[in-house]
Amino acid sequence: MDNYTARRPGRPSGITTEPLWREVLGARLRRLRKHRKLTLTQLARRAGVSPQYLSEIERGRKEPSSEMIAAISGALGISLLDLTVQVTGELHRTARTTIELARSAAGPAVALFDEELNAELSLPSLTSVSPDGTASWHRATEQLSLVA
């Protein structure tokens, strides 16, 4: 999986944040292009955009319009709906990983609240990491309330 947040300018080192839609979209478009063995120039020509602009989209630097995303996805032979589902799925996976890493690093002070701001939540915490990199998680349920 790509390290989307590592290339975000202005982000303090050591801070883990969720990726932006444009970062995940760009990485997904690049993987699709490479899987189809297309060069940047070939795909740009098919989609009717400049190679420079397509490169910026793939690197997560530009926020393309829905028309532009449709043109690029069409040039890749994938529907806009399928592309959106793939990007959304990757955002969900990345966000869960980011939240779990943040919780592990911050300890018990990190919590998420539901819409009512009063919830019983199951929060994962890292209990151990084996030498091969496998993590062991423990889930503890706590009653949390937000006091204004």
Task: Explain the overall architecture.
By secondary structure, the protein is an alpha+beta fold. It contains 5 helices and 2 strands, in the order H-H-H-H-H-E-E. Strand 1 and strand 2 form a beta hairpin. Helix 1 packs across helix 5, helix 2 crosses helix 3 and helix 2 crosses helix 4. The longest helix is centred in the middle third of the chain and has 27 residues.
Largest sheet: 2 strands, antiparallel
From the N-terminal CA to the C-terminal CA, the straight-line distance is: 39 Å
- Helix-strand topology string: HHHHHEE
Structural class: alpha+beta
* Helicity range: 40-55%
Q: How many beta-strand elements?
A: 2
Question: Can you count the helices?
Answer: 5
Task: Give a short summary of the structure.
By secondary structure, this protein is of the alpha+beta class. The protein has helices at 21-35, 40-47, 51-58, 66-76, 80-106; strands spanning 118-129, 135-145. The chain has a two-stranded antiparallel sheet.
Secondary-structure map:
Layout: H1 21-35, H2 40-47, H3 51-58, H4 66-76, H5 80-106, E1 118-129, E2 135-145
Antiparallel strand pairs: 1-2
Helix pairs in contact: 1-5, 2-3, 2-4
Give the tags.
148 residues; alpha+beta; two-stranded antiparallel sheet; 5 helices; 2 strands
